[in-house]
């Protein structure tokens, strides 16, 4: 007997475990209140929502239509509504969608309704009658000078103005009420379960609360309220219902039971769902859709972006403006340039060939002289017009060459000057301009929105750099040649593979010009350490009296140099240079560094090193983020004679810094590298190529003999790549695919095969898959841009981060999102040696925002920005100071880019409340993060129990993050794969590593790292609505009551709720299309977007 009982208990326990496991594996449920349902329905009604997207070409045959009608009627839909749905829907799914949209919720079959099928609302144990009154849709009367009963009667009178409390002869006995309450408790309060009937009292008011799956129902009794001689005061506290429906319910009870009052509590409780449905109908008659309406925008064709300079067709120039007054000194300098002897050959080659190559060594003068040759030949000819566009890879090159040509021609800068330039954010052209220096991006945008008519010559300089943009420009120019026989293309570079470029254009002539470079003496890192007696940080002590560095010492220095960058050596070298000449005859020291943050760090070190020195050292920065006016300082004469220019690689080519004799080369640069595990582009510091190192060396020998101090060893130089590989072969191609589609050139796979060094088909296909994944393109079946893709095509940054920024604007949390995106554009700012990782994590948790690494980074930036001593703040918290400076600079760039595409106003001010109303709203921030990082999603598999082993046994425990089973839908080499999903683990550096419970079983993440395990870095637990509204394509499983994203992320939702969410997604796409068609029209104050943000904030409730 006992054995049988034990077996029964065991079977019961197993059954309970199975049921619990089944419950845990159920998809999380999506809630949508009546108010939000009405809001979405109003939107879709306003936008003339239809179901034409469902089988538009399919016509149902008679038998097929009758079969579908029969199936819908079997599901419980009303026959007249079924007939109406068959007029627009040609499939079961289409008809159910239409019915869920057009029938009131209470007229839908029970399994499709929102009411009754949504998750049970948890009711707080801290419950007050005042809360109940507010939850029922009424404003509580809280006059402190009146008894609570009097305030409650005021609430009743706000519902029924004619209500009057009973007089003394009518006052009922409360004894009958207490008997009725006791009966309800006996019926509904079952042993061992949470009581459904509870009693609360306040002063002389007694309240009975009935728990319901959707909330609670509250009856209020007092002598002055009149029950049972009058109907009971019933307050419906269903949070998912609209306030109008809750108020209508209270009125309905009074009208329904006005003639029969006594003993109706049981009837009301048992008929509650039916009464709620009646209240809905009553509310619908009184209150129409509360959705804020707005006038439909009048759509106009997209306005082309105006691109300057635009010269009038058939312009006739006054050639007298082309004669300047150059000085004798400048004319003598021009005459001494090597390319001057080739002027006739250059002009003859250009005149007789549509495409030609000029290959000139460093210092030959090609970048300044070839355009001037053309201009001087034109002013002596009988030609009517000349329009030369010189394309340079960098803005500083455009500015430097513009200034030099003006000086050499003797022109005066101004509105009549025939030489101009155009870079992002700065244009100096006029109707008389015949020569324009511009960047590659500017020329591409001009060719994108305008034809090359009016341009007579296009010179592409520094084509050896092989950037994605320059290679794509060559592809476009090759196409342009077919329909523009008069245009001339000149390709120029100091070092290039002439055969490669010649063959690409079908065999074209070239001309080689020798360079002019003075002798430059090379000093490598081991030489520098010996000559200057410098002791590197974290390295051995150097004996200044020791013999010259041995080969073994060089190997040790090389190994140290791979791991560390010792910026302190740079001021040491500068002091050595200044002391090397006595007296100092002047000269500029040019220092090449990898990025802006490094420039700021070294600049501070140099100023500190010479703070107490009699030498008035002048430090000037030179990088692409500076304004044109700031970059202009590089070309000005030094006031003190002791000038140090700190530059990125933008000073490698095309510009001559006056009186530069010394170069200090760090040997490093920041290069955009694609991370296939994160699908993000990251700026990484790498060694430059040998060709780049030689170009840097050449900067010291342009005007006289000089020196180059290389902060790497000879062996390191030999290990460097001979040339920088073409960017198109090592970079993500999403932006390029967007450009080809934006310019309507055709299928990117076919288009990019026509580039000079075409990328692999796999790389292009992978880029298109990424764009499709983030909804930037669609296949119909040809690849086409979506409204979002049109915007991303205008943003020169990683497409995922670009999407995040756009949605940060739409959701009015732009400052916070821009900051997070700036952090994601580079490696982690937290740095510590292995032995101090635990201490670093303890410091990191000072900034923690639970469940989100990304919002934690936002807190880091806010505290760093507010710190008085930012460098000390970084030191204490194991944060890289240079990386934080890069974040600040990247933020500025992102704000400018958003203004360029009109998502922010020009001159945007930080913390503008119009664009940051939701800047501290966690759910809205997570939605913007999800928009950018999707489909980097982790699915968490919940566990029933977890047993932790200890000495002598084990005990049940809540699992840690590392003990959950987590999966991503991506194949990672060496990973544990199950049903197409790869198991991953949260990295110990993540804030989420120590969490034990997750609000939602889905996270978004930034990167995947495959080391000892497959780890995810920088993760955030997100809400269902963040994924549903900003994730992948939505599919509704109407009969199963689920909604899925990308066919693998699943949520429970009644058909009506799922269909409304799907419709809302479609509306958001429409809103983006409006923004593309009318970029000047602001949508940040759009009531619709405010409604969507409210939906995110409340999780649909």
From TrEMBL:
<keyword id="KW-0378">Hydrolase</keyword>
<dbReference type="InterPro" id="IPR001650">
    <property type="entry name" value="Helicase_C-like"/>
</dbReference>
<dbReference type="Pfam" id="PF26026">
    <property type="entry name" value="RNA_hel_CTD"/>
</dbReference>
<feature type="domain" description="Helicase C-terminal">
    <location>
        <begin position="572"/>
        <end position="744"/>
    </location>
</feature>
<dbReference type="InterPro" id="IPR011545">
    <property type="entry name" value="DEAD/DEAH_box_helicase_dom"/>
</dbReference>
<dbReference type="GO" id="GO:0016787">
    <property type="term" value="F:hydrolase activity"/>
</dbReference>
<dbReference type="GO" id="GO:0004386">
    <property type="term" value="F:helicase activity"/>
</dbReference>
<feature type="region of interest" description="Disordered">
    <location>
        <begin position="286"/>
        <end position="312"/>
    </location>
</feature>
<dbReference type="InterPro" id="IPR059023">
    <property type="entry name" value="RNA_hel_CTD"/>
</dbReference>
<dbReference type="GO" id="GO:0005524">
    <property type="term" value="F:ATP binding"/>
</dbReference>
<dbReference type="Pfam" id="PF21010">
    <property type="entry name" value="HA2_C"/>
</dbReference>
<dbReference type="GO" id="GO:0003723">
    <property type="term" value="F:RNA binding"/>
</dbReference>
<dbReference type="InterPro" id="IPR027417">
    <property type="entry name" value="P-loop_NTPase"/>
</dbReference>
<dbReference type="Pfam" id="PF00271">
    <property type="entry name" value="Helicase_C"/>
</dbReference>
<dbReference type="InterPro" id="IPR007502">
    <property type="entry name" value="Helicase-assoc_dom"/>
</dbReference>
<dbReference type="InterPro" id="IPR014001">
    <property type="entry name" value="Helicase_ATP-bd"/>
</dbReference>
<dbReference type="InterPro" id="IPR011709">
    <property type="entry name" value="DEAD-box_helicase_OB_fold"/>
</dbReference>
<feature type="domain" description="Helicase ATP-binding">
    <location>
        <begin position="347"/>
        <end position="514"/>
    </location>
</feature>
<dbReference type="Pfam" id="PF07717">
    <property type="entry name" value="OB_NTP_bind"/>
</dbReference>
<keyword id="KW-0347">Helicase</keyword>
<feature type="compositionally biased region" description="Basic and acidic residues">
    <location>
        <begin position="286"/>
        <end position="298"/>
    </location>
</feature>
<keyword id="KW-0067">ATP-binding</keyword>
<dbReference type="Pfam" id="PF00270">
    <property type="entry name" value="DEAD"/>
</dbReference>
<protein>
    <recommendedName>
        <fullName>ATP-dependent RNA helicase</fullName>
    </recommendedName>
</protein>
<keyword id="KW-0547">Nucleotide-binding</keyword>
């Amino acid at each position: 007997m006992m054995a049988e009982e034990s077996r029964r208990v065991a079977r019961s326990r197993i059954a309970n475990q199975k049921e619990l496991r089944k419950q845990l594996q159920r998809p999380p449920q999506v809630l949508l209140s009546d108010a939000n349902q009405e809001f979405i329905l109003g939107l879709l009604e306003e936008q003339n929502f239809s179901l034409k997207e469902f089988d538009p070409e399919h016509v149902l045959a008679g038998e097929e239509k009758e079969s579908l009608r029969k199936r819908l009627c079997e599901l419980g839909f009303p026959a007249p509504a079924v007939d109406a749905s068959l007029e627009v829907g040609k499939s079961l799914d289409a008809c159910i969608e239409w019915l869920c949209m057009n029938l009131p919720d209470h007229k839908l079959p029970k399994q499709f309704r929102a009411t009754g099928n949504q998750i049970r609302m948890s009711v707080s144990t801290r419950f007050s009658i005042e809360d109940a009154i507010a939850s029922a849709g009424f404003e509580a009367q809280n006059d402190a000078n009146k008894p609570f009963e009097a305030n409650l009667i005021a609430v009743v009178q706000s519902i029924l103005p004619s209500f009057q409390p009973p007089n003394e002869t009518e006052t009922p006995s409360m004894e009958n009420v207490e008997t009725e309450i006791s009966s309800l408790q006996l019926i509904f309060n079952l042993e061992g379960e949470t009581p459904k009937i509870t009693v609360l009292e306040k002063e002389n008011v007694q309240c009975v609360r009935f728990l319901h799956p959707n909330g609670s129902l509250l009856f209020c009794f007092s002598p002055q309220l009149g029950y049972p001689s009058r109907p009971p005061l019933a307050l419906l506290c269903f949070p998912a219902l609209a306030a109008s429906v809750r108020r209508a319910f209270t009125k309905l009870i009074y009208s329904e039971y006005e003639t029969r009052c006594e003993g109706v509590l049981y009837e009301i409780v048992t008929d509650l769902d039916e009464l709620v449905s009646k209240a809905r109908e009553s509310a619908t008659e009184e209150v129409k859709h509360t959705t804020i309406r707005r006038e439909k925008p009048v759509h106009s064709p997209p306005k082309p972006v105006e691109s300057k300079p635009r010269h009038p067709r058939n312009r006739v120039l006054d050639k007298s403006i082309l004669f300047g007054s150059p000085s004798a000194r400048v004319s003598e300098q021009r005459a001494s340039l090597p390319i001057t002897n080739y002027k006739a050959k250059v002009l003859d080659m250009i005149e007789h060939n549509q495409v030609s190559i000029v290959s000139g060594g460093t210092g030959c003068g090609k970048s300044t002289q070839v355009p001037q040759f053309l201009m001087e030949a034109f002013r002596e000819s009988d030609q009517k017009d000349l329009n030369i566009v010189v394309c340079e890879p960098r803005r500083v090159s455009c500015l430097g060459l513009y200034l030099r040509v003006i000086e050499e021609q003797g022109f005066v800068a101004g509105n009549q000057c025939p030489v101009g330039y155009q870079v992002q954010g700065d244009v100096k052209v006029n109707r008389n301009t015949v020569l324009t220096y511009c960047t590659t991006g500017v020329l591409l945008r001009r060719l994108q929105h305008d034809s090359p008519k009016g341009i007579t010559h296009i010179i592409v300089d520094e084509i050896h750099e092989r950037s994605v943009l320059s290679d794509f420009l060559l592809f476009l120019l090759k196409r342009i040649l077919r329909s523009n026989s008069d245009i001339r293309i000149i390709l120029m570079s100091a070092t290039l593979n002439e055969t490669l470029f010649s063959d690409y254009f079908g065999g074209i002539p070239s001309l080689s010009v020798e360079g002019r470079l003075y002798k430059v003496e090379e000093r490598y890192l081991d030489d520098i350490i010996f000559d200057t007696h410098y002791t590197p940080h974290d390295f051995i002590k150097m004996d200044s009296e020791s013999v010259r560095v041995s080969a073994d010492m060089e190997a040790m220095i090389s190994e140290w140099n791979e791991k560390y960058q010792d910026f302190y050596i740079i001021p040491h070298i500068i002091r050595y240079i200044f002391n090397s000449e006595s007296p100092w005859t002047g000269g500029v020291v040019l220092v090449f560094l990898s990025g802006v943050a490094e420039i700021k760090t070294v600049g501070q070190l140099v100023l500190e090193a010479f703070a107490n020195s009699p030498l008035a050292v002048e430090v000037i920065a030179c990088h692409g983020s500076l304004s044109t006016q700031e970059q202009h300082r590089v070309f000005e004469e030094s006031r003190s004679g002791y000038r140090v220019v700190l530059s990125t690689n933008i000073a490698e080519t095309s510009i001559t810094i006056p009186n530069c004799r010394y170069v200090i080369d760090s040997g490093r640069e920041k290069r955009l590298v694609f991370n296939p595990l994160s699908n993000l582009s990251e700026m990484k510091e790498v060694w430059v190529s040998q060709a780049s190192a030689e170009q840097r060396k050449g900067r010291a020998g342009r005007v006289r003999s000089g020196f180059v101090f290389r902060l790497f060893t000879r062996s390191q130089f030999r290990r460097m790549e001979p040339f920088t590989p073409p960017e198109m072969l090592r970079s993500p191609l999403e932006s390029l695919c967007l450009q080809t589609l934006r310019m309507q050139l055709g299928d990117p796979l076919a288009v990019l095969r026509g580039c000079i060094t075409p990328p692999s088909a796999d790389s292009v296909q992978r880029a298109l898959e990424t764009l499709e994944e983030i909804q930037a393109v669609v296949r119909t079946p040809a690849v086409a841009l979506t409204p979002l893709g049109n915007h991303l095509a205008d943003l020169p940054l990683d497409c995922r981060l670009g999407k995040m920024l756009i949605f940060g604007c739409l959701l009015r949390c732009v400052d916070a999102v821009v900051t997070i995106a700036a952090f994601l554009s580079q490696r982690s700012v937290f740095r510590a040696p292995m032995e101090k990782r635990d201490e670093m994590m303890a410091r990191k948790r000072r900034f923690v925002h639970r469940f989100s690494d990304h919002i934690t980074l936002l807190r880091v930036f806010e505290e760093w920005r507010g710190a008085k001593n930012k460098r000390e703040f970084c030191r204490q918290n194991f944060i890289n100071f240079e990386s934080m400076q890069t974040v600040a600079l990247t933020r500025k760039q992102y704000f400018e880019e958003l203004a360029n595409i009109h998502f922010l106003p020009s001159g945007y001010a930080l913390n503008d409340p119009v664009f940051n109303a939701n800047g501290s709203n966690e759910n809205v921030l997570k939605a913007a993060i999800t928009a950018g990082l999707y489909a980097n999603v982790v699915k968490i598999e919940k566990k029933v129990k977890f047993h932790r082993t200890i000495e002598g046994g084990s005990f049940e425990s809540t699992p840690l993050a590392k003990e959950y089973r987590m999966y991503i839908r991506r194949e990672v080499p060496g990973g544990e794969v199950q049903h197409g999903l790869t198991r991953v683990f949260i990295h110990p550096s993540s804030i989420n590593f120590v969490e034990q419970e997750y609000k939602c079983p889905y996270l978004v993440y930034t990167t995947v790292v495959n080391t000892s395990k497959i780890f995810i870095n920088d993760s955030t637990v997100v809400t269902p609505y963040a994924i549903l509204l900003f994730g992948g394509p939505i599919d509704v499983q109407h009969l199963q009551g689920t909604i899925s994203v990308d066919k693998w992320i699943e949520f429970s939702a009644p058909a009506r709720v799922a269909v409304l969410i799907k419709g809302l997604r479609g509306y958001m796409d429409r809103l983006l299309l409006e923004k593309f068609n009318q970029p000047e029209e602001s949508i940040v104050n759009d009531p619709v977007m405010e409604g969507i943000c409210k939906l995110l904030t409340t999780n649909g409730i």
